[in-house]
Design brief:
Blueprint lengths: L1 H4 L8 H6 L21 E5 L7 H9 L4 E8 L6 E9 L2 H11 L13 E4 L1 H4 L5 E5 L7 H8 L5 E8 L5 E9 L2 H11 L13 E4 L3 H15 L5 H28 L5 H16 L60 H14 L8 H27 L19 E5 L7 H8 L5 E8 L6 E9 L2 H11 L3 E2 L2 E2 L1 E4 L10
Antiparallel strand pairs: 1-3, 1-4, 2-3, 5-7, 5-8, 6-7, 9-11, 9-14, 10-11, 12-13
Helix pairs in contact: 9-10, 9-12, 10-12, 11-12, 12-13
This protein binds one DNA strand through strand 1, strand 2, strand 3, strand 5 and strand 6.
Length: about 500
DNA sequence: TTTCATT
């Protein structure tokens, strides 16, 4: 059917031709719908983005009277998100639809079958969903089910696959209860090594939204090209344009206390930072937090942050305490640069419920990831400053600081030169020198270098925030430089 | 080795 394979649906019959029996429920035209008190809201996934409510309605109406059907759209762009919520007047209709459709049919243009299942809001599934890693890539969903079925009733089992359909060697398994999931972890985690897997089976609770957010931010940081100094200096304003939309999204989500897309947060924070540095007004980023918004959830309160125009302004300046976090959560009381940290705080404020001294370790862990994330855009701000304005102090000569002030940095991006290296570390203090080592023959960076500060505190702060910082696929190694004569036996 | 998406 050409209409469908082209993804062109005329809205009156396109989809139904393939899927429904053109049956209309009798007796419900024109009535005001009422739903049962035990109705179930269904989540519908894998919907082609060119189908709207009126296209979808016929497909679902055959299972009963629809109370509400809403295609999810981006709040600002209006972009179809490829999924919908569906509530039938009768609970029974939802069950019938789920049975008949879930994973049973692939809509035109989609490469995975339609999803019809209770919405997250109906159940709260996170605490019974497991991530299973280190599977053999040949193992099917059924194989995984067999492995897990003795611990409880499995509601969902999905092998993660790439675009080519190949297994990524991991899966999600959702039980009907937390206890069942826990039992599976106890019995299966590390219990065996699948042929071809590089280590033993991993069975753990799947990431929470927050963990996923953090993971995504890290990935995004690698993707956006912001670690490439060329892109940084010449592409900053292009990036600015690209993300404006997302900034708008950030504003409203923050204002409404809604979900904050990591991309939006990241982009907005960058722009905020740039605006601040360039002495521009913060645009529409008026903090709207208040009322029930928890501390730290507000828009990054740039207005409350001293303008970081002075390079020295970064030195040892204690940032505002987002969330009222105790000092203890920062190792040694050393703080990353404040601007993005507040955005970090935004994500973390909810991670840090139920604070207690015993929670300090896990908090520290949580902070480490975000702190790392938080740190770079500070450097980014500095670099963007270099674009419209003369660059900050460039060291005229190699100077080594006192012991404890000199850092060795490994796994630098290939493109990084002395200046980029310095800019990356400026947020932590006065950089008195920076040197990337280059291959004499090729003039290519050897991807390591040295940075010297004028005081050990700055060096420690830099280690704290930048060691392990993910850039693309690599993580920076940032440690104290060994004293000159160390490790020389002669 | 953490998903395509959950107002």
């Amino acid at each position: 059917m050409a209409t469908l394979t082209n993804g062109q649906v005329d809205g009156t019959n396109g989809l139904v031709n393939g899927l429904s029996h053109s049956h209309s429920p009798a007796g419900c035209g024109g009535t005001i719908p009422m739903k049962d008190h035990d109705a179930i809201k269904l989540f519908i996934g894998q919907i082609p983005r060119n189908l709207d409510e009126k296209d979808l309605r016929p497909l679902f109406e055959e299972f009963g009277k629809i109370y509400e059907l809403t295609v999810l759209k981006d709040r600002f762009t209006g972009m179809h998100k490829g999924c919908a919520f569906l509530t039938y007047c009768a609970r029974e209709s939802a069950l019938k639809a789920q049975n008949a459709l879930h994973e049973q049919k692939t809509l035109p243009g989609m490469n995975r079958p339609i999803q019809v299942k209770p919405a997250d809001s109906e159940s709260r599934g996170e605490d019974r969903k497991l991530f299973v890693g280190m599977l053999n890539k040949q193992q099917s969903e059924d194989d995984v089910r067999r492995l897990f079925e003795s611990f409880g009733s499995i509601e969902e089992c999905t092998i993660l696959r790439g675009p080519d359909g190949n297994s990524k060697g991991c899966a999600f398994v959702k039980y009907s209860s937390h206890a069942e999931a826990q039992a599976a972890i106890s019995s299966l985690h590390g219990s065996q090594t699948m042929p071809g897997a590089s280590s033993s089976l991993v069975v753990k609770f799947a990431d929470t939204d927050k963990e996923r957010t953090i993971r995504r931010m890290q990935q995004m940081a690698g993707q956006m090209g912001i670690f490439n100094p060329i892109a940084l200096q010449f592409g900053a304003y292009g990036a600015y344009a690209q993300v404006q939309q997302q900034q708008a999204a950030l504003m409203a989500s923050v204002g409404q206390g809604g979900y904050l897309s990591p991309m939006a947060a990241f982009a907005a924070a960058q722009m905020q930072h740039m605006a601040t540095i360039n002495g521009l007004p913060g645009g529409p980023m008026t903090p709207t937090s208040g009322g029930s918004t928890p501390p730290g959830i507000g828009a990054p309160t740039v207005t409350s942050i001293p303008s970081p125009i002075s390079v020295n302004g970064f030195t040892g300046m204690p940032p505002p305490q987002a969330n009222g976090q105790p000092e203890a959560v920062y190792t040694n009381g050393i703080h990353p640069y404040p601007v993005l940290q507040e955005v970090g705080g935004c994500f973390l404020s909810s991670l840090s419920e139920a604070q207690s001294p015993t929670a300090a370790d896990s908090l520290q862990q949580a902070y480490t990831g975000v702190q790392q994330y938080a740190a770079y855009p500070a450097a980014y701000g500095q670099i963007s400053q270099a674009f419209p304005q003369p660059p900050p102090i460039i060291p005229q000569q190699q100077r080594e600081g006192p012991e404890g002030c000199n850092l060795f940095i490994y796994h630098l991006p290939q493109e990084f030169g002395d200046v980029e290296l310095m800019q990356m570390f400026l947020p932590f203090g006065n950089v008195i020198s920076s040197k990337v080592f280059v291959d004499r023959a090729t003039n290519q960076s050897k991807c390591f270098g040295f940075v010297s500060f004028d005081n050990p505190g700055s060096a420690q702060a830099a280690i704290q925030s930048m060691n392990g910082f993910q850039i693309g696929m690599k993580r920076l190694k940032v440690q104290l430089k060994r004293p000159k004569d160390a490790n020389r036996p002669y």
